[in-house]
Amino acid sequence: MTEMSRFLAGQIFSRFMRKNIQHLKQCKIRTFTTAPSTNLKDVLEKKIPEKQKEVIEFRKQHGNTKIGEVTVDQYVYEDSMNLIAKLPTIAAIIYRNLYRDGTSVGAIDPDKDWTWNFTSMLGFEDPAFTELMRLYLTIHSDHEGGNVSAHTTHLVGSALSDPYLAFAGGMNGLAGPLHGLANQEVLVWLTKLQQQLGGEVSDDQLREFIWNTLKSGQVVPGYGHAVLRKTDPRYTCQREFALKHLPDDPLFKLVSQLYKVVPDTLMQHGKAKNPWPNVDAHSGVLLQYYNLKEMNYYTVLFGVSRALGCMASLIWSRALGLPLERPKSFDIKHLKKLAGAA
Ligand SMILES: CC(C)(COP(=O)(O)OP(=O)(O)OC[C@H]1O[C@@H](n2cnc3c(N)ncnc32)[C@H](O)[C@@H]1OP(=O)(O)O)[C@@H](O)C(=O)NCCC(=O)NCCS
Questions:
Q1: What ranges in 159-249 are assigned the alpha helix state H?
Q2: Count of C-beta atoms within a 10 Å radius of residue 233
Q3: For residues 19 and 82, what is the distance between their CA atoms, to the nearest angstrom?
Q4: How many other CB atoms are found less than 10 A from the CB of residue 34?
Q5: Which sign does the torsion angle of CA 139, 145, 149, 154 carry?
Q6: Residue 6 CB–ligand 1 contact under 6 Å
Q7: What pLDDT shows up at residue 78?
Q8: Which residues are CB-contacts of 184 (< 8 A; sequence separation ≥ 6)?
Q9: I need a surface site. Which of 6, 309, 317, 341 has the fewest CB within 10 A?
């Protein structure tokens, strides 16, 4: 990062924090005044017509304003801040409706941080879980922009779609098993392993299980990466957290044992360019330990975090006036020329 981009990032971040707090305060007022029932269906019934009006208005203005000036300052920035501020509330309402008794998520406490409010809305009180989620929400926010969810958000946004539409596109990408769903795949794989092999397993038994996975044409979930060529630092910091808070947890011990065995096996297999674990190899185990056991919800947590990275990038893309993104396309003549040169 150059000095200039560091300075600009600092400016955006401090503006983001100020705005975020304002939005959180607004959320508190709205909880009491406009939505006495927090049941998602009731809330949407009232909100959707209001939002539709806003969107129609937005689109009219959008078409009439200069992109570089007005879109960035008044719409993309504001929409992104709103999205980040409200996403935890929406995610928590979904969680409570699906997995708890559907009761209210309660009011936002503007004196507490984003994560504290999120875990409290989910209904968790253990401070250690909140600390884990601070780590989780930070490390899943985004790392280089080329992954499916961040890239899709950028792609959809590059057509000047609003941040909500762009982020929804990104979330559809996150749901794939090679991407955001991988942490769930890891748990399913670990459960199968435990069912087949029982509690204490030897390294040789693990090797055999891994080979069976590979021979059946499946990937070892939680290992490999499109860009990284070493252990994912996001894996390492979760491992450090686990070593501190749950060193004797049986599932964590299994994950640690796999860390010793999988990379060598993948190297022998000879396909994966990176045999080391990624972020998803660890996160599910930690969430299970703190009783967030509903695996289907894990990608939602990932999405709440990813909004931070995706929205920051979208704001930058508009601020820098980046063009519509499109892959190169070639006619047959050009393809023949390329094939001939190879
Ligand atoms: C992340 C991932 C999708 C990256 O894919 P990629 O960029 O194509 O990775 P590579 O270039 O190393 O792939 C080369 C080959 O190794 C294979 N490979 C990569 N990771 C592998 C793994 N964990 N287990 C088995 N095979 C693997 C690929 O499937 C590919 O096989 P192919 O040539 O038959 O198509 C891949 O490593 C993977 O599927 N990992 C497991 C899922 C996962 O953990 N996803 C979360 C990522 S953060």
A1: 163-174, 182-197, 203-215, 233-245
A2: 12
A3: 9
A4: 11
A5: positive
A6: no
A7: 87
A8: 177, 284, 295, 296, 298, 299
A9: 341
Please give the number of the atom of ligand 1 that sits closest to the Cα of 218. 25
Q: Which atom of ligand 1 is nearest to the CA of 223?
A: 23
State how far the Cα of 8 lies from the Cα of 97, in Å rounded to an integer.
40
Q: What angle do CA 71, 323, 337 make, to 5 degrees?
A: 165
Residue 30 alpha carbon to ligand 1 centre in Å: 45
Pull the structure tokens for residue 334: 């050009």
Catalytic site includes residue 269: no
Specify the ligand 1 atom closest to the Cα of 222.
Answer: 44
How confident is the prediction along the chain (342 residues), in pLDDT tens digits per residue? 445 455 545 555 555 555 555 554 554 444 445 556 777 777 777 877 887 787 677 666 655 555 555 445 568 888 999 999 999 999 999 999 999 988 899 899 999 999 999 999 999 999 999 999 999 999 999 777 899 999 999 999 998 888 999 999 999 999 998 898 999 999 999 999 999 998 889 999 999 999 999 999 999 999 999 999 999 999 999 999 999 999 999 999 999 999 999 999 999 999 999 999 999 999 999 999 999 999 999 999 999 999 999 999 998 888 888 889 998 888 999 989 988 876
pTM to 2 decimals? 0.79
**Best of 189, 190, 219, 268 to mutate for ligand 1, by most ligand atoms within 8 A of CB?**
219
Identify the CA nearest to 83 among candidates 335, 283, 308: 308
Which position among 179, 245, 249, 269 bears the catalytic label? Answer: 179
CA of 44 to the centre of ligand 1 (A): 40
- Gap between the Cα atoms of 312 and 9, Å rounded: 9
Nearest CA to ligand 1 atom 37: 224
Non-local (6+) Cβ contacts of 255 within 8 A are 190, 242, 281, 282, 285
Among 178, 187, 189, 236, residue to substitute to test ligand 1 (most atoms within 8 Å of Cβ): 178
Q: Which of 79, 162, 280, 282 is catalytic?
A: 280
Give Cα separations from 335 to 150, 244, 308, 332 (angstroms): 30, 55, 40, 5
